[in-house]
Every structure is written in C-alpha cells, then in structure tokens.
Automatic annotation (TrEMBL), chain A:
Gene3D superfamilies for this protein: MetI-like
Subcellular location(s) per record: Cell membrane
Domain ABC transmembrane type-1, residue spans: 96-306
Provenance organism: Pseudomonas rhizosphaerae
Membrane-traversing stretches: 12-30, 100-123, 135-159, 179-198, 237-263, 283-306
UniProt keyword list: Cell membrane, Membrane, Transmembrane, Transmembrane helix, Transport
Matches recorded under Pfam families: BPD_transp_1, BPD_transp_1_N
GO biological process, one term: transmembrane transport
Family from the record: Belongs to the binding-protein-dependent transport system permease family. OppBC subfamily.
A cellular-component GO term for this protein: plasma membrane
Upper taxonomic lineage: Bacteria, Pseudomonadati, Pseudomonadota, Gammaproteobacteria, Pseudomonadales
Name of the protein described by the UniProt record: Diguanylate cyclase
Length: 316, 295, 558
C-alpha cells in the first residue's frame, strides 16, 4: 500500500509541475502578456511602459520569472484582480460556494439516478427499459447543454412561468425554498449529461460483475436476488465508479461553466467569462490553475480511495 | 467458424460485404440509423443550399422574424430577414467541416504521441503520459475559451484551437493499446528480423491499433461539433455573417420569447449530428471488438 | 430639480437640543398649516427616517470602488452615491454645489478673469461616513493623489495643470492653473473627494482595503458586497444634503439582458439601469402594468470610425460616398425600433453647443455610385471599385456581443456592396479589440459608440486633435488619426474661452468641419430605454452623466 500511495503522489507532483508550466505559457501568450492592463490605458508612453515592465520584473529571463511565479502560487499569492484589486484567491473563494452548490447537487442527483437506471438496465438486459435507457443516454449526451438550458428556460420560465429564469436567489427572500426553486432548472440541465454518462458506465460495470462466477455461486447458494444485487453486484460495480468520478471532474466543471452562463448563476464559471470579457488575466489564470489543481486532487483522492476499497488495485 | 461463411458471395467484387466487422456493424440498428442520419445531413448541407430560394446572406429587413412556412421561407427568417433554412444548411457545412478537420488534426497529434509513449517505456513514455495528464487536468472548455479570447477568430483558428484541446483522449487510448500490443509475438518477431523502432511503431503496431482510433475519431467529431457550437454561442468562435450552428444560437438567445424557432432549430440540428456520430461510434466499438460475437 | 437640495439644514436637526426640539415642534406644527413650498416638503421628508429598499438591475458588474482608478460607466453608479464632488451637474447642464458652498465662477470671484486662479469655499458640516469631518485637506489630498505617479489613476487630464494647491482654512482652498482650461470645471464636477485620513496612511493606495469598502461623504454608506451578485448601500443619516428617503439600495448584477428584462417584468428588480431594456422589448415593456418605461437621451454617438491613414479612406469622395450608402433610416427604424435619434454630428442634440444646421444625409445608392464613378473609382475584379492600385476593400470590426450592432454591421456591408465596396467583417473579443488594435490604430474601420464630450464640456481635443494619436507618438483617443490644422486651431481657441456664447461659435465651426471631413460616419445618438416601478418617484435621467442612479437620495416610494 505505501508503495502505491508514494507512486501516485509522485505522479501527481510531476503533473502539477507540468500543469504550472502550461499555465505559465498560456499567461504569456495573452496579447500584451502581463503588461496588458497598462496597454489598455491610452496615454502611456513607451518609456513609461518599459519602466513598469522593469518594476514588475518582466525583463528577467523566463525561467527566473517562472520559478518566481510558481513559488508565489505555492504560498497562496495568486496575484490581484485587475478590476477590483482584491487577491485572486479571495475572488475565487467568493464565487466557489455557488458553483459547488450547483455541481454538488447535480452530481448527487446524477449518481443516484444514473446508478438506478444503469443497474436496472443491466439486470433487465435488452428489455424495453434497457433499450430506451441506452438510446436515451446517447441522445442526452449529444444535446448541447446550453441549448437545452435555453429551451428549458423558454418552456418552464417564459411560457409556463413555473420556474425563475435565472440567478441563484431573489434578493430579500433568501429562504431555503427560494434557493431550491432557483436550483431546479440549472441542476436538471447540468445533470442531464452526467446521468447519461453514469448510467452507461454503471450498466457496463454491472454487466461485467454479473457474469462473474461469484455471483453465480451466490445465486446457487439461494441468496435472494435482491441481496445479491445490493451486496455483491452493486458494491463491486461501484468500484470503477470511484475512478470515473475523479475523471469526470473536468467535465463537470466545464458543464458548470456552460450552465452558469445560461442561467446567470453567480459561480466560478460566470466569473471566468466576465474576467475574459474584461481581460482580467490574474483571475483568468487563477481559475485555470485552480480548476487544474482541483482535478488533480480529485483524481489523487479517487485513486487513493480505490486503493483502499479494491485490493486488486494496490496489489497489482 | 465465423458467421461470415454463411454469407460468402459468389463473386470477389462483393466479398467485402462479408467482412465480419461490417456484418457486426450492420446488426447494430442504432449505428446504421446513425449512418443514415449523418448521410442525409451531409447531403442536405452540401446540396440543399442550391435547392432553396434564398441564399444565406441576403438581408431583407422588411421580413424580419417571419415564422416557419411564410412564403418560401420554410423555416422562417431571422432578425435580419435572412432565410433560416439557408443559414442552417450553410452553417452545417461550416460546423461539420470544422468538426471533421479538428478531428483529423487531433487524431494525427494524438496518435503520434500515443504511439511514441506506448512504445518507449521508461522515462519517455511516462513523461509523455504525464504531459498528457497535465493537459487533461484543465477542463477543455476553459482552455478553449482562453485561447479563443486571445486570438483573432476565424474558422481555421477555431479548428486549431479545438484540435489542440482534443488530442489528449486519443493519445491515452492509443498509448494503452500500443502498450498491450508491444508484448505480442508479432512485435517480437519484427524486432528479431531487425526492424527499426520507427518501422515497428508505425508499420506494425499502429495499424493494429486502428480500431480504437476510429472509434475515438467518431467521438472526437461529436465533441468537436459541440465545442464549436459552444464557443460560437459565447461569441468567440465563427463570426457573423458566416453562419454556424453555434452563432445562430447566440443571435437567437435574445429573441427567445419573440421567435423561439430561431433557437430551437439550430439546436436540433446539432443534436442530430452529434447523436449520429455517437451512434456510429457505439456501433463501431461493438463491431471492432471481436468478443461481442460470443454471448 | 437640482442634484442635491442643499438649501436644507444639516444634521443638527436629527440630534436637537431641547430648545431646538421645541423650536422644531412649533415650526413643524406651523408647517402643516401654512404651505411653505419646498421647505415644508423637505421638513416632512426629513422628519421620517429612511425606509424601504430599491433594487437596481445592472447588466455589468461594478467592481472599482475607488473613483479615481480606471473604471467603467457602471462603477459611476456606486461613486455617485457613496461620494460627493465639489459641485455636481444638473440635467440642464448647470453646476450645482455639493461639497463646495457655491460653484466657483468668474462672477463670484471663485475663478480669476484669466481662468488661472481658483478659490473654492467648502461646507463646514460635511462628514465622512466614519464620523470625521470633511476639510480642505481632503480636497488637496484628492487632487494630488490623482496625479501621483505611484497611483494607478484613471484620468489625469486637467488635474495635471494644477499648481500651488494651498489650504487656506479647513473650509477654503486655493490653487493656480498652469494655463486656462475651460473644460476643467466639467472635469471637477465628476471628481469625487476621497478621505485623506484613511488613504494617506495606507501602505499602497492601489491595493488598500478602502478600495473594497469605500468611505465617502455621500448620501449612502457602503453596506455589503457579494462579489458577482450584488452590492448593498445603506442610507447615510448624517448626510449634509438632501436626505435619502430610501434606506437600502441594492445594485444587482444580472449579466444577461433578457433575464434582466424578465426580472423587471416579474418585479424581482425595481429599476433597470445599465444597459436597460433592449429595443425589441420596448413595445411590450411600455404597456406593462405598474411599470413606467422612459426613453432617456444619452451623450453617446454611434459611428463608423475610419482609420484616416488607410489608402482607401484618403480620398474625401470615398468617405462621402460611403456615408451616402448607409441606409440610416432603416437601421434606426427597423433594427433599433425607432428608439434612437438620427444625427449628423458627434455633439449630442441636448448640448448647448449643438449645431443644428449640418447637411442632412440621405440614402442614395445611385448618387453614391455616381460620385465614385466621377472620381475615377471604376469597378474592377469581383465588382469592387479600384483606382490607382487601391481596392475599396477593407475590414470593419466591433466587439462581438451586441446583437443589434452586429446586425447593423451586416446591413451596412450589404448596402456598401451595392456601390462596389467590399467590407469584410472581422469582429473581435473585447480583450483583443480594445488593446493595441484600437489604441495603436491598427484597424481599418470600426463601429463604436463614443461619448466625445467631457461631462457637458464640448472640448474634443482628445478625440480630434492631431496630437492625440497614440500611433503617431501622441497621447489621447484620436485613434482615427484625423488631422486638420484648422480644427486643431479652433479646439485650442475654444478651450481657452470661458464665455458660453463665444465658445458656441467656435464649436459650431468645428462640427461643420468634422461633418465635411467625415473621419467618423455618424449613425445615431443613443437613447437608453429604462424602466422602473410606477410607485418610485424621483427617477430622472441626466444626459451629462453616464448613469441613472445619480440622484438616488431624491428617490422615494409612494
């Protein structure tokens, strides 16, 4: 086990460094690079721009700049937003809860529904339910999330007036019910794609397990089918799901960005788009790095968890 | 024996019909449906514009927001009075083209890196794969948007940007496949007769990995079409007056209450195209996986 | 109604001595019997404490709360409520005293006859939100901060002409101008005073906590901010001017205009400010029950701005033909639903300096084609005109995202094609567009909305002066690289004169020349469609400012 952990940690560390390298390259790719905030201010002579560049340490060799930038990241100094001067990390932290709420609720929902649909489909292979579920999943995967959101808004909000057209809450009324009703549409839209993915993976994972000898043995021993399912099949089928969950984080983050756009949800995705529009590079870079680190941590956690849960993995 | 013998045709010309892979593919009803759908779509986009009464660029301000089936506007008109059907089909040309080219480029890059990483174990292989992992850590939507926001938008640029953020999955798949293939006997044999590394990689191993590559290719096109739609929807992709399914949705967003068909129709087109590719990909995966014959 | 009603007494009325209380009671009783006009109204208003809440919806987020750092229009909304300038500007263009007791003019000796010596008298009863008194020291600190090299200042123009700023007493300040600069009064009218006792002790003003929790002298105090969502301001009970009647003001950020409109319809927000109701919703909006929708003229002019150094635009005939081939009427009537104002100039029609006698444009494809034919521009390859090796083919850019503007752009592209001009659309994301591409004049042509004036002041040297082109080594906003010696001369003249009538004569000539030269092809003057709940009183536009919530302290609910 320790070997396994060390191995994974080592790999993650390497990937982290590579991630920072890619991030640094992107930062300097931006038009004007780190100097861009000044380039947008007319009336700055070239001499003044040079002086500021010198002050910011931009004349040093790239490698030195990179090491400096990276070490700053480590201690938590991610720079200051061009717009309101606040530290980037606190800007991101301010928007994080909204995104977590959205992502968390929809992931929970999609795991529950996806598992149920997938297992049921596997157990009743090729039945009407299974065929519908499979086709449905594939169509759901193909629907552009933002379009689905627009259509949902048009139908449930503009046409029927049942649900609000956007935002996380109504000012003045921030009760639980208010939050809940604002959550309905975005969570459904975001969950659509995830349910499809989960159900398909769950189906094939369950199929893999169901054909195994130990299941046949259990049934032969007279264990009720229900118990076979819950105690043997699903538990084992859920194992690869842990890895999948880790791998899904970038997709979910991306999906959250799309959903937040359409529903004007005040989360990290919204922040990212606004910062793009205002060329707020520190925040843009901050979010890129933050999401990459999140993904790395998620994968690491998933791999460690599966190492604990599944002996086959750590003894391999 | 395989089922193919039952269908062995008399002449050699049609022998390819008996190919077991093809047979398996044809049995997959959804996949066949997918092929039909995408063929119809492609034909419509290529030839359709010539059959319509209006072209996609002519502005007719007096006739804005005409609902479908007004006069010769089968799908109505948009905010500038342009024919929706014409714009839809021309947009299809561009969106499908971008998707296809992006897929080609990312296949090339992904396969190259995957083959090299899978063949050379040790530092080179591990290093390359960590590099791929690093790229995969960024949600592709974020990366694509950042790149699109910093560059001058054009169909070529969008294609490149999408390709640059799509090759990672392919290289992963290829690398895994090559890693298992390199242990097989034929590789050993090739090395024994003194074939160079390059020969082994690209003449022996890669052709055997074509199966997963093709499956990945169809899924990549599907993803590329969705990505292009999204960036154009946000305003960073294909610029008007060039139509693309994504930027048609962007223009339609504001008029959701007044002219909902402008938003619904392009979305349906995207869903249709992407679904077809997903079906095809699924069918190919089953067809190329020999085990599915045993049940 | 003026911006702040300073004829009222200050805050001593809220903490009276017994004598004062008795006096108040008698006067108050009398006030109910005898109508005292404005005074009684304000008494009644001040007697009741501020209550209630108003929610203002914005489609852009205010993020810069230090009024002297570079910011955008929507941030002004916060600044006008949290801070005060020395004097403000009313919708009719007059200056109204705020922190100053009277507006300095040549007539009252506040400004010397040559425009160089300024003496400003200040109120003695203004307090900062933390209780400390406002004095001339704060004014001196503010004016010096703006031009300080270590401070990321948004605009130095005008302030860099100040010399020898002297605090004569806590309520009086003098300074000398390096040269007479008429627009300075306008600049001062939107220069907010910031507290010396807080900022001078900050380690670095650029990143001081003040920038995220500003303290001013204005009618509203900083409340809370949920970044990316809303900002709340609370009424300042000790305000020296017109007391706010509403206790809580919320600036809610809703980035999508359709959602903004829907929330206005459903009543989730009370007022739509920047960028308001889109023209296509106007028909429906004006008929909504319980809502009042107004159309406010704004000083922003939409134009096609040409890069005068491009070979295609050097020939004045080309520019005239291009202008004649724009179907302005259809754009205004159909695309903008008739809600914007046709114009021939960069000067807003409500300005005192507007020239109403400019030649009217008429859309005429044949005449435009003839003009080009006669000047030797003959159709060449692909039907596009050329002459002397120069093809009339160029790009036009704007920022992607404004739907109607993009539609207008495509429409113009079509009508220009009819006269043999090829315009290629090349829209860019804001990051790319407003960078070097714009500032260093790398574009061919752009469609852009500009406010060419400084407040109400007609000086436009920043836009039309030949020394204001960055690409040629100057500094300013003359990105079209327009050069006209006569215009330079007139603009310099105009800036030095103080008398309005005399200045008007000068600026009328400038507008004639610009209309003739056509470095910009004026399309229309913007109007803002704004809505508010019918129960809200006091909402007025102010064409001399960039935002609507400038007088929230005069708003009340009926």
């Amino acid at each position: 086990m320790p070997n396994y952990i060390l191995n994974r940690l080592g790999q993650s560390a390497v990937v982290l460094v590579l991630v920072s390298l890619i991030g640094f390259m992107v930062l300097n790719l931006a038009p004007g690079g780190p100097m861009s905030q000044f380039a947008l201010n007319p009336g700055m002579s070239q001499a003044e721009l040079d002086r500021i560049a010198e002050q910011l340490g931009l004349k040093r060799p790239l490698l030195v700049q990179y090491i400096d930038w990276f070490s700053h990241l480590f201690v938590g100094d991610w720079g200051h937003s061009f717009r309101d001067g606040r530290p980037v990390l606190s800007v991101i932290a301010g928007h994080l809860p909204a995104t977590l709420l959205l992502m968390g609720t929809s992931t929970l929902l999609s795991i529950v529904i996806g598992t149920w649909v997938g297992v049921l489909g596997a157990v009743r292979r090729y039945s009407v339910f299974d065929t519908l579920a499979t086709v449905g999943a594939m169509v759901a995967l193909s629907i552009p999330t933002f379009w689905f959101g627009l259509v949902a808004i048009f139908f449930f909000s503009l046409h029927l007036g049942w649900l609000p057209a956007g935002n996380m809450y109504t000012i003045g009324d921030q009760s639980l019910g208010d939050y809940a009703i604002h959550l309905v549409l975005p969570v459904l839209v975001l969950a659509l794609v995830n349910v499809a993915i989960w159900s398909r993976y769950m189906r094939s994972a369950t199929l893999d397990v169901i054909d195994q000898d130990f299941v046949r043995t259990a049934r032969a021993k007279g264990v009720p089918y229900r118990r076979v399912l819950t105690h043997h099949v699903i538990r084992n089928a859920l194992l690869p799901m842990i890895t999948l969950a880790g791998l899904q984080i970038p997709t979910i983050l991306g999906g959250a960005l799309v959903t937040e756009t359409v529903f004007t949800w005040p989360g990290m995705g919204r922040l990212f788009l606004d910062s793009l529009g205002y060329s707020d590079y520190p925040v843009i870079m901050g979010i890129l790095m933050f999401s990459a680190v999140l993904v790395l941590l998620g994968n690491l956690l998933a791999d460690l968890l599966i190492g604990v849960a599944d002996p086959r993995v750590r003894l391999a | 024996m395989t089922t193919a013998t039952h269908y062995l045709p008399a002449s050699r010309r049609w022998a390819w019909l008996a190919n077991p892979t093809l047979r398996r593919f044809m049995r997959h009803k959804l996949a066949v449906l997918g092929v039909v759908m995408i063929t119809v779509l492609i034909l419509a986009c290529v030839f359709g514009p010539y059959l319509l009464h209006y072209n996609d660029l002519s502005i007719d301000i007096r006739n804005r927001f005409a609902p479908p089936f007004t006069g010769n506007h089968y799908l109505g008109t948009d905010a500038l009075g342009r024919d929706t059907a014409a714009r839809l089909l021309n947009a299809g040309r561009i969106s499908l083209m971008v998707g296809f080219c992006a897929m080609l480029i990312s296949i090339v890059i992904g396969t190259l890196i995957g083959v090299i990483a899978g063949y050379y174990r040790g530092w080179v292989g591990a290093g390359l794969m960590r590099f791929v992992d690093a790229f995969l850590s960024f949600p592709s939507v974020f990366l694509v948007l950042v790149l699109a926001a910093f560059t001058k938008p054009s169909p070529m640029m969008i294609t490149l940007i999408i390709a640059v953020t799509s090759w990672m999955e392919i290289s992963r798949i290829v690398e895994a496949e090559i890693r298992s293939l390199r242990e097989r006997d034929f590789t050993l044999a090739a090395r024994m007769i003194g074939a160079s590394n390059r020969w082994i990689m690209f003449r022996e191993l890669m052709p055997n990995a074509i199966g997963p590559i093709i499956v990945a290719a169809t899924l990549t096109i599907a993803n590329a079409i969705l990505l292009e739609a999204y960036i154009s929807f946000l305003g960073y992709g294909i610029q008007p007056p060039l139509p693309s399914w994504g930027n048609m949705l962007n223009a339609a967003q504001q008029y959701l209450g007044k002219a909902p068909w402008l938003a619904i129709i392009p979305g349906l087109a995207i869903t249709l195209a992407v679904t077809s590719f997903n079906f095809i990909g699924d069918g190919l995966r089953d067809a190329l996986d020999g085990r599915s014959d045993l049940k | 109604m003026s911006q702040r009603d300073d004829s009222d007494k200050g805050n001593s009325l809220l903490n009276p001595t017994r004598r004062q209380a008795l006096a108040m009671a008698i006067i108050g009783a009398a006030g109910t019997l005898l109508p005292l006009g404005r005074a009684s109204q304000s008494f009644a208003a001040m007697a009741a404490p501020p209550s209630g809440q108003v929610i203002i919806g914005l489609s852009q987020e205010p993020t810069v709360f230090n009024p002297h750092m570079p910011h955008i229009e929507v941030d002004d909304g916060i600044h006008w409520n949290v801070f005060d300038p020395l004097f403000g500007i009313s919708p009719s263009g007059e200056f109204v005293p705020a922190l100053a007791t009277e507006v300095p003019t040549v007539a009252n000796g506040g400004i010397s006859a040559d425009g160089l010596q300024w003496k400003v008298k200040l109120r003695s009863d203004a307090k900062w939100h933390d209780g400390r008194p406002f004095t001339a020291e704060d004014v001196k600190y503010t004016l010096e901060l703006i031009v300080s090299p270590n401070f990321r200042s948004g605009r130095r123009a005008g302030h860099d002409l100040l010399r020898d700023i002297t605090v004569v007493s806590p309520t009086e300040i003098h300074w000398r101008m390096e040269k007479s600069y008429a627009p300075y009064a306008s600049i001062l009218s939107s220069t907010f005073m910031v507290p010396k006792h807080i900022l001078s002790v900050a380690a670095d003003v650029n990143t001081a906590p003040f920038n995220n929790a500003p303290i001013g002298t204005g009618p509203f105090k900083w409340g809370t901010r949920v970044a990316g969502d809303h900002i709340q301001l609370k009424a300042n009970p000790h305000y020296h001017g017109t007391q706010p009647q509403i206790d809580s003001v919320i600036f809610k950020y809703i980035p999508d205009l359709t959602v903004l409109y829907t929330q206005f319809k459903t009543g989730d927000i009370d007022v739509t400010a920047m960028q308001g109701i889109t023209p296509d919703h106007y028909e429906e909006a004006k008929d909504l029950a319980g809502r009042t929708v107004v159309i406010l003229p704004v000083a922003t002019i939409e134009s096609v701005t040409l890069n005068m150094e491009r070979p295609q635009f050097k020939d004045p005939v080309v520019r005239q033909a291009l202008y004649m081939a724009i179907d302005k009427k259809t754009i205004i009537d159909e695309l903008y639903f008739g809600l914007v104002l046709p114009t021939e100039t960069y000067m807003p029609q409500q300005s005192a300096y507007y020239n109403p006698n400019l030649p009217k444009q008429s859309f005429n494809i044949e005449a435009a084609s003839k003009l080009l034919d006669d000047a030797g521009w003959k159709p060449g390859a692909g039907g596009i005109r050329e002459k002397g090796g120069v093809r009339l083919s160029f790009t036009n850019s704007t920022t992607a995202g404004n739907q109607i503007r993009e539609q207008a752009q495509q429409f113009i592209q079509q009508t220009w094609l009819a006269i043999g001009v090829e315009m290629k659309i090349s829209n860019l994301p804001p990051a790319v567009m407003w960078g070097e591409y714009w500032v260093q004049s790398k574009f061919d042509s752009v469609i852009v909305g500009n406010n060419f004036l400084t407040g109400a002041d007609p000086d436009t040297r920043d836009y039309f002066g030949s020394q204001s082109t960055n690409a040629k080594g100057g500094a300013g906003q003359n990105n079209s690289q327009y050069v006209n010696a006569k215009v330079d001369e007139l603009l310099a003249q105009g800036a030095a004169i103080q008398d309005v009538a005399q200045r008007k004569a000068v600026y009328v000539q400038v507008q004639d020349l610009i209309r003739q030269d056509l470095p910009i092809l004026p399309l229309f003057q913007y109007t803002y469609v704004r809505g508010y709940k019918s129960g809200l009183k006091g909402f007025t536009g102010n064409i001399n400012l960039r935002i609507e919530p400038w007088n929230v302290n005069t708003w009340s609910w009926t």
